[in-house]
Amino acid sequence: MYILLQSPIPTAWTRIEVIAEATAAVGIVFTLFYSVWSFTRTLRDSYYAELDRIYFELLKIALERPYLADFAARPDPNMQGEYNAYAFMVWNFLETVFDRCQGLSKKRLRDTWYPIVGAENQLHRDWFDNNRSKFKQSFCAFIEREYPKPKPDAPCEPNSATRP
Asked: Could you write out the DSSP letters of every residue in 73-136?
């Protein structure tokens, strides 16, 4: 009788136990992947919210002092110090955007914020070109590569076909 109780033949309950343990292990793995996915999504959303908040503050400053937004078009020596501080804040924000948008999973952030980088680049590029030493080399290279400064127009030469 003792030999029958220690039989190596699996019973139905043993099979159920093995299936339950395997199912639990798979569930744990799926839970782990879901947690990582959820964490990265929350992090991405917090990046967006942080960038949105900072940019909102910059826009408020530009609304309160509109001459800062188009200072390059109408420079005023009396306001140069204020513009320098504002332009530095804008470019510092753009460098933060660049930092937050690194990585393959950040396409949505890039799609949202790189147009802003382009728009602010057009407004404050001269200031940036004169203050590159304040920024990381990788950021400066990104600006040069993605938003190259337009080259001045070459002087017009008469077309040889129209010459007398």
From this structure: TS--GGGHHHHHHHHHHHHHHHHHHHHHT-SGGGHHHHHHHHHHHHHHHHHHHHHHHH-GGGS-
Total-model pTM: 0.69
Nearest to 84 by CA among 119, 122, 134, 140: 134
List CB contacts of 101: < 8 A, sequence separation 6 or more. Answer: 109, 110, 113, 114
Structure tokens of 143? Answer: 């600006």
What counts of helices (H) and strands (E) characterise the chain?
5, 0
Rounded CA gap, 73 and 161, in Å? 38
Per residue in 130-146, pLDDT (tens digit) is 999 999 999 999 999 99
